[in-house]
Amino acid sequence: MKSLKIIIALVVVASLASCNNKRKPQVQYMPDMYVSVPYDANGVTSAGNVPVDRVPVAGTVSRNGVVAYDIADTNEGYEKAKAELKSPLAKNEINLEKGKELYGIYCATCHGAKGDGNGTLAKRDKFNGIPNYKDRDITDGSIYHVIMYGKNLMGSHASQLNHKERWQVVQYVEKLKSELK
Amino acid sequence: MKSVKHHSKLTQRLLQSFVFLLVLSLSFSAHSQDVDEARQKEGKKLFKSLCASCHKLNKKLVGPALGGVEEKRTNEWLKAWIRDNAALRASGDKDAIAIYEEYKQSNMTAFPQLNDKQIDDILYYTTVGEIGKVADPNQTLSTTPKDAAPKWLIYILAAAIVVAFLIIGSLLKTISELKGAPKTPGLMGQASELWQGIKQNTFLHVLTVIFGALIAAYVLFGTLFKVGVDEGYQPIQPIAFSHKIHAGDNKIDCQYCHSAAKHSKHSGIPSVNVCMNCHKNISEVADDTKVVMDDHTLTKKDLDKEIAKIYEAAGWDAEKLEYTGNTKPVKWVRVHNLPDFAYFNHSQHVTVGGIKCQKCHGPVEEMEEVYQYSPLTMGWCIDCHKETKVDLKGNEYYAKIHEELAKKYGVDQVTIAQLGGKECGKCHY
After folding, report:
1. Predicted model pTM
2. How far apart are CA A164 and CA B48, in angstroms?
3. Where does the pLDDT of residue B139 fall: very low under 50, low under 70, confident under 90, or very high at 90 and above?
4. Amino acid B169: pLDDT
5. pLDDT band at residue B111, thresholds of 50, 70 and 90?
6. Are A82 and A13 contained in the same domain?
7. How far apart are CA B250 and CA B247, in angstroms?
8. What is the mean pLDDT of residues A64-92?
9. Does a structural domain hold residue A68?
10. Residue contact B253–A42, C-beta within 8 A
């Protein structure tokens, strides 16, 4: 009888102590209200044991209507974009301001706040040989093309920026290039 | 006599090996003196600024590894290639066309601005490589920090000390008893006498009941208030990703990886293509990188394996530098998880509200392992909504309603709560 009491006491203490395990989530009251039937956007797997987050089917167009980019990721495509592609955005302060903000997030870590190729990652020797914009022969179209597909060591940033944002960044990069001279 | 003989033999051996080592080190230093450091330095500077975005000395990158390239090609050919490789290819040079095809027709930038000396300096650097970078393996071994004594050892020592005192105490008692001192009742005897006294005291009974009830209430409410509140939750992730290194040391913006936060309800877990934007180049960490987790420390050896996990997930062949197409999802464990009956939208807070990520997520840039910083309870949301004033700048469209609401509440600037940020239906529907 006495040993039973001790066992019960131990179990209670152990369960209280396990509440403080930071590796495990806490107990939920009515878990079916916490986690409803639909899949979470960041959930692990859905029906058929396939991941929830997947690459959209080829040719998928978002409801907002993403403008198609049909210039190929080749040397010829690069030259074509460089020569022909023009920005659909008006050159104004709002776009430039937004472009500056986005450049700060997505580009400046490598290319530097001034576009001289001297960002934090270059300073810390993680990436070397990042060109100064003034040394490169770039146009609106070629900048957009490189954001879409990447070039050499730079990867594609198409998944992080949408169509309009890319052009805003292009506008800001052009401004930086003109200031570097 | 014999031992002396042995001794002198030993000294002789030691002297011999010492002389040998001396000669060896001298020959090494003599070797490094051969290198023209000024030229090497100049070449390295040029290489780093112009070539290193596509070439490494010992490893294939976008282009071939350049260490010892002078042995493979003639100086004239290299100069022609570096100045204008397209022209060299157009002239029908077989080697040039072959290398162009081998590297998937990636165009190398032409460098017509380089003069002969500069190119020679770069080539000199590719031949001699780094100076003094030949690491002494003994040195790296000796610098590995010796961890402090493990925790359990301290506990065992403390227990041993306590036991020792108890033994000494009982020994002293036995000795004094043997010497003829009156036999005192043992510890147990004293305790049982005290217990009899307590049992008969009504005041103490009442006090005990009240005290017990208070403790029980404290434990009960403490437990209940923790139900569904995951503050401090720090799950073990499949890849030992350190936010401290990425967001803290390297100052990569939160939204570089969590790029969905600006447009979407969710901040988004980056897909591996975002990791690969940098890790295509960075396949190993710097030599002195260390990640101190809660219960263990990861060094370069472990961390390089963690980077290899990204390559496995992305289907990246680090040897051939190409994607195999054989991808595998990374099963990150979600840290912040609001219950589904509460609506929260990141874009509303990040883009419209302009709130810093750290306001809710805490100093993530200092966390080696991410944990939930805020309680994410309703009271916590409401508190912030009550305090935060709406930024009216550039919000002319709503100027009229803001003005009227401010007049209604008699304030200069309305808070989120006064704008309806406390309505039930705002977050629960």
Report:
1. 0.73
2. 34
3. very low
4. 87
5. confident
6. no
7. 6
8. 86
9. no
10. no
Chain A CA closest to residue B282: A126
Q: Is the CB of A121 less than 8 angstroms away from the CB of B371?
A: no
Whether B230 and A51 lie within 8 Å, measured CB to CB:
no
Of A40, A152, A159, the CB nearest to B273: A159
H/E stretch holding B153 reads helix B151-178
Among partner residues A34, A121, A124, which is closest to B339 by beta-carbon distance? A34
Position B175 pLDDT exceeds 70: yes
Q: Which of B233, B269, B340 sits opposite A22 (nearest CB)?
A: B233
Count chain A–chain B contacts defined by CB atoms under 8 A: 128
Q: Which domain holds residue A6?
A: 2-43
**Could you tell me the residue ranges of all domains in chain B?**
1-30, 37-128, 151-216, 243-371, 377-429
Complex-level ipTM: 0.86
Q: Which residues of chain B make contact with A40, given a CB cutoff of 8 A?
A: 334
Candidates B106, B223, B234, B273: best to mutate against A (most CBs of A within 10 A) is B273
Residues of A within 8 A of B61 (CB-CB) are 153
Token couple for B32:
């490094």
Task: Determine, for residues A129 and B54 on separate chains, whether the beta-carbon distance falls below 8 Å.
Answer: yes
Confidence of residue B95 (pLDDT cuts 50, 70, 90): confident
Residue B145: the pLDDT is: 43
Mean pLDDT, rounded, for B65-69: 80
Quick one: pLDDT at residue B134?
Answer: 47
Other Cβ atoms within 10 Å of B306 Cβ, number: 17
pLDDT confidence of residue B295: 78
Q: CA-to-CA distance for B52 and B62, rounded, in angstroms?
A: 10
Determine the Cα angle at B135 with ends B134 and B137, to 5°: 135
Instruction: Grade residue B241 by pLDDT with cuts at 50, 70 and 90.
Output: very high
Say what the alpha-carbon torsion angle B34, B38, B39, B41 is, to the nearest 10 degrees: 110
Cα gap B398→B414, rounded to integer Å: 12
Task: Count the domains in chain A.
Answer: 2
* Best residue in B218, B244, B256 for a mutation probing chain A (most A CBs within 10 Å): B256
Q: What is the pLDDT of residue B340?
A: 87
The CATH architecture to which B37-128 belongs is Orthogonal Bundle (1.10)
Cβ neighbours of A46 in B, within 8 Å: none
